[in-house]
Design goal:
The protein has one domain: Aldolase class I (TIM Barrel). With 359 residues, the chain is α/β, with parallel strands linked by helices. It has an eight-stranded parallel β-barrel, surrounded by five helices. The protein is built from 13 helices and eleven strands. Helix 1 packs parallel to helix 2 and helix 2 packs across helix 4. The protein starts with 19 loop residues before the first strand and ends in a 7-residue tail after the last helix. The protein is globular.
């Protein structure tokens, strides 16, 4: 049986000290130019001190045109390197592993932030989006690869490609909207081409001691569950990724419209041959028992989101006490501040999840 405290060896990169990972979470508390802020470092270092084995940053834009919200971390320029170097050094000193989540908003990017034209896999004249040319698609692949190389240069231990939640990588996987006929859409093979090219390019641009993660949603956002099962199996077999992070919203949920008694979303992926890739899962994990349950089912890593907001030391406490349960929501804004959320993060969290904050 796998325990929360068990280390995990990755195909590439350093081993992880335990099975608990800080999930990447939008927080809007980086500097306006995308550089690392003191507030962002304080938020992350509290979780490093709290025992998480791998610390994921919030989504960092790989190209200025992909910026999606104010206060977003950037990794699109060497101007971002000093902050990333500072982050890497701090994590290393705390004994935690570091990862930057690589992101491009695609059709959801915000022109008012970048001043640049919004592009994505398809045209949408109503919101002013233009479909990318093949050359631009290939440039976007290079943007992800260059960002990963920049992270490695800074001393970061690895990256996670953000392929979930309907951003650029996920938009290419969208069966409802990605109808491109140039090899990057229309059918499952075409829709999967972009993400495969991204992770392959990153693998070619980084060294053997640098790990590659990939976050995927597997339903909603125009995704077809059967296609995602096939894609995950192919990614496992390719050897190009070291960690797959399934963002499930709830690890116990059934697929949309599935009858009672059906396989859960997670169960669709547990029996796929992994070929050495670690499988991580996220979604309503708020106690030591929750984490132990998904490890018992066969997951390798547990990604902790809201519970890590409520308690920076969730990992350490869950490892020490099998009965540990994170503080339940709602919590106060003062509690969030005490947990090292800066004012932009407190405001963002309170406005987006008002039922979780009671003043």
């Amino acid at each position: 049986m796998t325990n929360l405290s068990d280390p995990l060896n990755l195909r590439h990169g350093h081993s992880l000290p335990n099975r608990l990972v800080l999930a990447p979470m939008t927080n809007q508390q980086s500097n306006p130019d995308g550089t690392l802020s003191d507030d962002e470092l304080a938020w992350l270092m509290a979780r490093a001190d709290g025992g998480f084995s791998l610390l994921q940053t919030a989504a960092a834009y790989v190209h200025t045109a992909g910026q999606t919200w104010p206060g977003q971390l950037g990794i699109s320029s060497d101007d971002h390197l000093p902050g990333l170097e500072r982050l890497a050094a701090a994590f290393s000193a705390a004994g935690a592993r570091s990862s930057v989540q690589l992101h491009h908003g695609g059709v959801r990017a915000e022109k008012t932030l970048s001043g640049l034209e919004v592009v994505g896999p398809w045209d949408d004249a109503q919101i002013g989006v233009r479909a990318m040319t093949i050359a631009e698609v290939q440039e976007a692949v290079e943007d992800f690869a260059a960002a990963a190389a920049r992270a490695e240069k800074a001393g970061i231990d690895g990256i996670e490609v953000h392929g979930g939640h309907g951003y650029l990588v996920g938009q290419f996987l969208d069966a409802s909207n990605n109808l491109r006929e140039d090899g990057y859409g229309t059918d499952p093979t075409g829709r999967a081409r972009f993400v495969k090219e991204v992770v392959r390019a990153i693998r070619e641009r980084t060294g053997p001691h640098f790990h590659i993660g990939l976050r995927l949603s597997v339903e909603r956002y125009g995704l077809v569950l059967a296609d995602m099962v096939q894609l995950v199996g192919e990614l496992f077999a390719s050897g190009d990724i070291d960690i797959l992070d399934l963002s499930l919203w709830d690890v116990a949920k059934l697929p949309a419209h599935a009858p009672e008694g059906s396989q859960t979303l997670l169960e669709h992926f547990l029996d796929l041959p992994r070929h050495g890739t670690a499988l991580g899962v996220a979604g309503h994990l708020a106690s030591a028992a929750d984490v132990q349950q998904v490890l018992n089912q066969g997951a390798d890593l547990a990604y902790i989101g809201k519970a890590a907001i409520a308690d920076h030391a969730f990992a350490r406490r869950a490892i020490a006490d099998p009965s540990y349960q994170a503080q339940s929501f709602p919590v106060t804004q003062d509690h969030l501040r005490s947990e090292k959320l800066a004012e932009p993060f407190v405001s963002y969290f309170s406005s987006n999840w008002p039922k979780l904050v009671n003043g």
